[in-house]
Design brief:
The protein is an alpha/beta fold and about 400 residues long. The chain folds into two domains: about 110 residues, Alpha-Beta Plaits (2-Layer Sandwich); about 280 residues, Alpha-Beta Barrel (TIM Barrel). It contains 18 helices and 13 strands. Strands 5-6-7-8-9-11-12-13 form an eight-stranded parallel β-barrel, surrounded by seven helices. α6 runs parallel beside α7, α8 packs parallel to α10 and α12 runs parallel beside α13. Bound molecules: 2-carboxyarabinitol-1,5-diphosphate and magnesium ion. The site of magnesium ion (MG) has 4 residues, from loops.
């Protein structure tokens, strides 16, 4: 029986023929052995030599360990290992991010990055609208989009939800969204909510203000397309899918449905189970790349070092880059900074991320001392101060709502 080596350190590969991955590996094994174990398990090998593996199969389909730098390992998988039309992201993940986590010899593995060859990328469509499409809908070409998540996340009736959105829009917000745990509970049925919110958005429109609201359609695979189409027919202006709980296929199905003519906002609830541990799991930038391929128009990327959720500036920048880079043939995804946002920290996010972001606050709007409309105004004023380059404390001197927000929450 032949024994095969998966090591190919330094080999120059044709980038258009491989999916190239980077893993951070923690192990007591020599790192080369650990890397080889991953390459074998995820391509043509297993824990022992096998009589059914021949030179031809190995040469065509074996993964290659092409670089090792400290604990960072580069593994290239031949494009032929992937089954895109039937199989798609579930199959891709099962190769680049599958059994390897369970290998007993590894203490931890984190998939840090992935690059796909053109042949795979061209089988995806990417976003229908993307960041610029969203901006066109909202008639807001340059400034950061500014949004809210209706709070409390559960419990409001359709009428109260619509009232919240009307108030938020009257205060100047461009985006509203359902929270990730709200879908079709008895207290807020999706049909009634969508219709009530649509009416509020129509009123705002008549008053000259453009705003969209993402209705959460996260549900079973067999129901999501119908729900997407229904929500659109009830007047939804944007749809929201929780990508980790529903799956990438759900995002792709909704985004690629020719009947769907509105953008898809992608929430990432549960992502931290995979992304938070620096030594195990999957980096958010990988998730962002897959969401972009599958057609998400907007995606949560973290708040770049501020706010309530974990996530440093560098990590947020990498996620933003995955949404916006020019090296893939897709429209760009609008990066969404959300989680514990409030007016005083908006300038820090704009400073780190620039203007092409959607910044949104739930508590940071609904918790304003003078209510939702004033909270929305304060967020918009914070955005304007950052956009105009005026220090926020200075700006607040002539903007009452912002001053109240700074008095309540400060700037840190
Ligand atoms: C924000 C939020 C979002 C988080 C998710 C929440 O509300 O609605 O789901 O932003 O985090 O429920 O926490 P607040 P991420 O503005 O009241 O914090 O965007 O990092 O995935
Ligand atoms: Mg939420």
């Amino acid at each position: 029986m032949n024994s095969y080596s998966y090591m190919a350190l330094g080999e120059e590969l044709d980038k258009d023929a491989y999916v190239i991955t980077k893993y951070r590996v923690s192990t007591d094994l020599p790192i080369e052995k650990a890397a080889e174990a991953i390459a074998a398990e995820q391509s043509t090998g297993t824990w022992t030599g096998i009589s059914t593996l021949n030179d031809d199969v190995f040469r065509k389909y074996a993964a290659k360990v092409t670089a090792i730098d400290g604990d960072m390992v580069t593994i290239a998988y031949p494009e032929e290992d992937f089954s895109i039309r039937v199989g798609a992201v579930p199959q891709i993940l099962s190769v680049i991010s599958g059994n390897l986590y369970g290998l007993g010899a590894l203490k931890g593995v984190r998939l840090e990055d992935v690059e796909f060859p053109k042949g795979i990328l061209k089988q995806y469509k990417g976003p229908k609208f993307g960041d610029q499409g969203l901006r066109e809908i909202l008639h807001r070409p340059e400034k950061p989009l500014v949004g809210t998540i209706v709070k409390p996340k559960i419990g409001l009736s359709p009428e109260d939800t619509a009232k919240y959105i009307y108030e938020a829009g009257s205060g100047g917000l461009t985006n509203g969204k359902d929270d990730e745990t709200l879908v079709d509970q008895v207290f807020c049925p999706i049909e009634a909510r969508t219709k009530a919110v649509a009416e509020a958005l129509d009123r705002l429109r008549e008053e000259g203000h453009y705003m969209v609201h993402a209705i959460n359609i996260s549900t079973n695979g067999q129901d999501i397309l119908q729900l997407a189409e229904d929500a659109q027919s009830w007047g939804a202006t944007q749809l929201m899918v929780d990508v980790i709980t529903c799956g990438y296929g759900a995002v792709q199905a909704v985004a690629e449905d020719p009947k769907i003519k509105i953008p898809v906002h992608v929430h990432r609830t549960m992502h931290a189970a995979m992304t938070k541990d620096p030594y195990n799991g999957i980096a958010m930038r990988v998730i962002a790349k897959l969401v972009r391929m599958c057609g998400g128009d907007a995606l949560h990327i973290g708040t770049l070092g501020v706010g309530k959720m974990e996530g440093a500036i560098a990590e947020g920048k990498a996620n933003q880059d995955a949404c916006q880079s020019d090296d893939v043939p897709f429209k760009k995804v609008m990066p969404v900074c959300s989680g514990g946002m409030f007016p005083g920290i908006v300038p820090k996010v704009v400073q780190a991320a620039g203007n092409n972001v959607q910044i949104q606050a739930g508590g940071g709007v609904a918790g304003h001392p003078e209510g939702v409309r004033a909270g929305a105004k304060a967020m918009c004023q914070a955005i304007d101060s950052a956009y105009e380059g005026v220090p926020i404390e200075e700006y607040a001197k002539t903007h009452h709502e912002l001053q109240l927000a700074l008095d309540r929450w400060g700037t840190k």
